[in-house]
Amino acid sequence: MMEIRNPITVEEAAKRVMACRKYGEVEYVDITAANGRVLAQDIIADHDVPSFDRSPYDGFAVRSIDTKTAAADNSILLNVVGHIGAGSVFKQELKEKDAVRIMTGAAIPRGADTVIMLEDTEQAGDNQIYIKREMKHHQNISFQGEDVEKGSVIVSKGKLINPGVVALLATFGYKQVPVSKKPVIGVIATGSELLEVDQALEEGKIRNSNAYMIMAQIERSGATAKYYGQFSDKLDICIQQMQVAMSEVDFLITTGGVSVGDFDLLPEIYDYFQAEVLFNKIKMRPGSVTTVAQLNNQLLYGLSGNPSACYVGFELYVKPIIDAFLDRDQIGLKTVKATLTEDFPKSNPFDRFIRGHYVIKNSQVTVAPSGKDKSNMVHSLAEANCFIRLRGGTAAYSKGEVVDIYLLENHS
Amino acid sequence: MMEIRNPITVEEAAKRVMACRKYGEVEYVDITAANGRVLAQDIIADHDVPSFDRSPYDGFAVRSIDTKTAAADNSILLNVVGHIGAGSVFKQELKEKDAVRIMTGAAIPRGADTVIMLEDTEQAGDNQIYIKREMKHHQNISFQGEDVEKGSVIVSKGKLINPGVVALLATFGYKQVPVSKKPVIGVIATGSELLEVDQALEEGKIRNSNAYMIMAQIERSGATAKYYGQFSDKLDICIQQMQVAMSEVDFLITTGGVSVGDFDLLPEIYDYFQAEVLFNKIKMRPGSVTTVAQLNNQLLYGLSGNPSACYVGFELYVKPIIDAFLDRDQIGLKTVKATLTEDFPKSNPFDRFIRGHYVIKNSQVTVAPSGKDKSNMVHSLAEANCFIRLRGGTAAYSKGEVVDIYLLENHS
Hints:
Two copies of one chain form a homodimer. Chain A is α/β, with parallel strands linked by helices.
């Protein structure tokens, strides 16, 4: 039966999917495993930074009042009464004409109100120095709390943890880090033309590449992939396989089987489960047959069997749902503008998402399709770092026009 | 003893480090674990793509000669003699006025030389169709080998594997993927002021954040970190600890202990081992005391204890050595130009590397320091996605000037 499908816009499709968003749970991981995860709670400063008044330089802690008349032609002699390594504390209070040798980061001793840098002093014997420069009250002191005040929010939840965030987590004592649990996403391949990756080729068949590609996309998005292999082409077995998969994962993706072709089982399976089909036709190329259904609040994705369509379908409709599950501060791919460096002669009845490669040259972002012609499938797959979006209802695009691009590999 | 150090340029320092480059080995991982690894061998097509002449559309395989006079006002009747699903093969040869129903991706049957799209036909009974359009010889056929020829190099070694590359690996039967073995990098923290991340604060002390930050940087760079904890401040124990570490890792990083301060042990340790110090002073800020030595062809990094300097030292001198070990096609951080959106009023006696945040707006890359003033340590750590390089020997930089930036998080 040839079904009539009602195409919706890319934005409407995204909206319908996002209406089914689910949030994940919080789990704790060791700080050494936190990089690349999503912070699940605000990080609060458990102390001031610095947590004491400290020296920003290697030098001598002194009393500014003792340096009043010091100048290049008027050395003043001070007595070195101690030595403070980083991490140790000098217990005495400085008296008149006292100086204490101090290392970068060490606590300012009582009585001292400034630090004179080592290069502004001169050794004058075993326990004496000359200083040749007047110091001001509170000069060269890093005051307690000047970087961060105790109790303030250091990093907000939703942030992707990078090495700089790890440094902050360590500084504030987060040995165990609250992160968002990764969603588990099931992957099922359909298509009687598919061989597994380790099978020898046969006429009429191709190796299953979509499932492996999708699993890599799942991982890149910060989720966990679970592969269920290839579907049977018998409806009853399919239904059983799908039931098992749905019970074990947060979201389920099938690749292939969503066209209006005679052999495509997915619509029948959705019918059987009485799943609500959110849409089965989008005004976009490739991937117009991308189908999403939901069953008991679980999203079931039917991505196209065509590799480009499958790739695009994932990034546009699965990635945002992963971001939402992780409660990230950035939902979906980052979008920026770029200048086309090549003509795109085809017209665009629907929105078109082409795999592209953007570069930055002289602080300008330019982009070109990464596989210009159909013989360039390999280059397009391996070299794409963005999608180029060409709006539906437009004629050809010319070199020099500014387009929207969606960044695939940019994590910051 | 106050040692005189001879500062060298950033480029000279990088050159001396790279002269000690080591290559890693090849290992095989399952295709599901290949994303994010570095390809260690060229990937060769084991078959043509397509591997047989196939249909790019859903429609009917026909003989163009039978369509010669077809037009909108002149329907031609063909006999549907078969049905080819994707993956199956039609064994008969087409005879005069024969048509075979064919699915996208299926093999073209013998005798047919074109595919007419489903929408250009009309059902004329159970086993007959009308066609209303003349088809040309070889129209709508994807020919064997037109995408990729058997034997050609699909992806070159050194490439970071992304989901597109995974799709190619699957297509060409790479169930096991040759990747570069990750180097193991040892991390040792030094500094008597350091507490571990789970210890309560004490006056004069700070928690060890550098080691955790560096471990995250190591991971981000595609290597494996091995943490040896904090060094003893007793020379003989240190030497023993270092000996163990060196025997277990490819490269060793210590943080702290490289200043000319009185408590810094590292120079003594290098002396003890008779390690060759490649440099211990670089014309850069921060990180001028970054020290690199080599012992029996093993690089020993002495990064500064200052967090910013430590971070910069890693990215400039350790990351390229990791890339080299992995035999990547991109060595070191990617560098592009960006326009400053803020004044930078300080002069730059040496090259200055500031943590920055770049954005793309209207296809222009702009950048600002991510921690403008010293109270902004947190923002600088968490939000940096690049370094801004300000050249030594320059006065202040102004808003609008174009500078070099080094991208920290861009993997493509």
